[in-house]
From TrEMBL:
Record-annotated Acyl-CoA dehydrogenase/oxidase N-terminal domain positions: 25-116
Gene3D superfamilies found in the cross-reference section: Acyl-CoA dehydrogenase/oxidase, N-terminal domain (1.10.540.10), Butyryl-CoA Dehydrogenase, subunit A, domain 2 (2.40.110.10), Butyryl-CoA Dehydrogenase, subunit A, domain 3 (1.20.140.10)
GO molecular function: acyl-CoA dehydrogenase activity; flavin adenine dinucleotide binding
Species classification: Bacteria, Pseudomonadati, Pseudomonadota, Betaproteobacteria, Burkholderiales
Protein name: Acyl-CoA dehydrogenase
Region entry Disordered, spans: 315-336
Organism: Chitinasiproducens palmae
Start-end of Low complexity biased regions: 319-336
A Pfam entry, by short name: Acyl-CoA_dh_N
Amino acid sequence: MTNASLADSFATAEAMLAHAADTDIRTAARRAAAVAAEYADIVDAEGRFPTEAVAALREQRLLGAAIPPKHGGMGATLADITATCRLLGEACASTAMIYAMHQSQLWCLLEHAPHDLWHAALLQRLATAQGLVASATSEETIGGNLRHSKCAIVSDGQGGFTLTKRVPTLSYGAHADAILISGRRAPDALPGDQVLVTVLREDCRLEAIGSWNTLGMRGTCSSGFAVQASGGIVQILPTEFADIAHETMLPVSHLLWSAVWLGIATDAVHRGQRYLRADARQRNGATPFGAARLADAIGLLRMLDSRIETLLDGRTHGTSTDTPTDTSSSASVIGRAARGRRGSASGYEGTLAMNDLKVRASLMALDVVGHVLRLCGMAAYRNDTPYSVGRHLRDLHAAPLMINNDRISASMATLALAHRAV
């Protein structure tokens, strides 16, 4: 296999970024990724927050890139953010996942926050200070079902509220500037009658209830916390949490997570390429034994890249139109979170597409790195060589567990039965 065919065989994050309209975003992403790559091994070994990489994201104004210019942001599209997630994934998985999770929460604000003074000031603050937004949607005792809550918003009757929640995994919570917290609308509300509220860091108290000593994604610092928060009723998003989750939070999360996993796998393939080229030089240019493995890995990368690009274009199988949608908003990019609201036929189709992306991407990325491990052998198995993929494998083993694939597959089976054209 020639170098030219290798170069043409899959689209890299640089190619994805080439479609971005704003050159400043491309340049900023490369600069931040360079810093993330420099500290990736240290972050992983020490299991610490990627302070240097997040500082670089702030310096390059990438944390608030999606915020509209009128509020001080860059107006980046979801395609821009997706490409940035992939590029960061090639550099440091923990940094990339923090960025992806932050952006999915920010997109919930951009799509569902009312046009009032408080939220306008919030967006301005997040853009100016390049604030980091975390998510507290998980909760002890609910079995991983984010669509049910035990905690509740308690109104003080004077325009304020309090909220207490035990969150088993609050990614980078100790480092966040704001947290989106889900809970029941009121103490007498049913478990599924939920709202989403934005809480500023200075208005909440975090008490650690667990540590984060994990196999991979060690720098996300997803410890458990007991959260005690307060604020004004105006901070509660008017859209029901069920609709926010369906229309924005889950589809955007699945898209950006998949881009991160694609980036991790892409870096592994780059290492495999370098290994085979070195091996070919020792063989006087003869095709190395593991070239077939590399071809398989590249094929999987191309499939995953194509699936992400298809969804970014707003095309899902069986939808009413194949016309690409405007890439300026999350809902339009991914088929208006999939060309329909809950309960509609097109909504079923879109939900299936986004859930399928998450499940397939998490498994395909692992398969890619597995191919690289086998083609490089001990050089990839060891942790002290430039071809090592141990960190890549450990980080990617988190992928099927983030909203467990088994839970998603069970949900997809139910949707498939309800949808006539599969």
